[in-house]
Amino acid sequence: MTGDTALKTPQEKLPVTVVGAGLMGHGIAQVFAAAGHATTLTDIHADTLRAAPRQIARNLEQMAVAPDEVLAKLRLEASLARAVAHAGLVIEAAAERIELKQQLFADIAAAAPGTAILASNTSVIPITRIGRDLDPAARARLVGTHWWNPPHLIPLVEVVRTAFTTDAVFEHTLALLRAAGKQPVKVLKDVPGFIGNRLQHALWREALSLVHQGVCDAGTIDQVVKRGFGLRMSVLGPMENADLVGLELIRSVHQLLFPDLDGSATPSPLLTELLDQGRPGMRAGQGLLDWTPEQADAVRDRLARHLIALQAGASPDA
């Protein structure tokens, strides 16, 4: 990517294509359409693609935003080649299967302009592996953009560079996301899970271990997090908190605690036990907890209302 394609002002708009209209894709498309970009959404599943505008309209109405102006910026396209033909930025939001993503990017690179930024929303797969078979020019334009669910409400996007990503592509991607109202962070080394998911799954590993050992039940884990240290985490990060309490104390606690923490390199046996019992999670009504449809809907609604309220009252320096 040459210097004359770099983002010059926050007002510059590029044609954006989002590949995958499901759980994450329609929300990502919503963000760019709301920011004024001509946005194309494509999906191999016709029903998923047709449902996307309704889901976006529902999101916007929940946010007290009139949907018409945003939806006017959105175009649906069944053909991947046509969807990416004029894109300045292509974001892949397909299922977490490495072979699928590799094939998608081969097809995207063949059909998109040679200056288009190519981005993957994978939550855990290293970007270098996804772009393994691309030619050098396409690999240089490939970055990770890991959004969080729901993408239209969570400010953070992890922008992941590989050893092949050019500085111009990396900085351009960060600028596009900032201009769209997101808060991107730089992931300077392409490791599995990037930053956020490594932190989140480290917590999950210990939580599942505590339940499996009989230390507490699953509901207690949630209460400890939500009513304890989780209350301060949105305003006091772990590094700030470590400095606040003092690194000498942190080291002393770790000397006592770390030898007893779960260090398994494989998934918790508890997950296998629950899956074998036909308890895969909320959509089935049973997982670590039991769920009625009404309880499941209430959780989703509570999360959305909480994030909307935070967004409305967010400090510019947050």
TrEMBL record:
<protein>
    <submittedName>
        <fullName>3-hydroxyacyl-CoA dehydrogenase NAD-binding domain-containing protein</fullName>
    </submittedName>
</protein>
<dbReference type="InterPro" id="IPR013328">
    <property type="entry name" value="6PGD_dom2"/>
</dbReference>
<dbReference type="InterPro" id="IPR036291">
    <property type="entry name" value="NAD(P)-bd_dom_sf"/>
</dbReference>
<feature type="domain" description="3-hydroxyacyl-CoA dehydrogenase C-terminal">
    <location>
        <begin position="193"/>
        <end position="291"/>
    </location>
</feature>
<dbReference type="Pfam" id="PF02737">
    <property type="entry name" value="3HCDH_N"/>
</dbReference>
<dbReference type="InterPro" id="IPR006108">
    <property type="entry name" value="3HC_DH_C"/>
</dbReference>
<dbReference type="Pfam" id="PF00725">
    <property type="entry name" value="3HCDH"/>
</dbReference>
<dbReference type="InterPro" id="IPR022694">
    <property type="entry name" value="3-OHacyl-CoA_DH"/>
</dbReference>
<dbReference type="InterPro" id="IPR008927">
    <property type="entry name" value="6-PGluconate_DH-like_C_sf"/>
</dbReference>
<keyword id="KW-0560">Oxidoreductase</keyword>
<dbReference type="InterPro" id="IPR006176">
    <property type="entry name" value="3-OHacyl-CoA_DH_NAD-bd"/>
</dbReference>
<feature type="domain" description="3-hydroxyacyl-CoA dehydrogenase NAD binding">
    <location>
        <begin position="16"/>
        <end position="190"/>
    </location>
</feature>
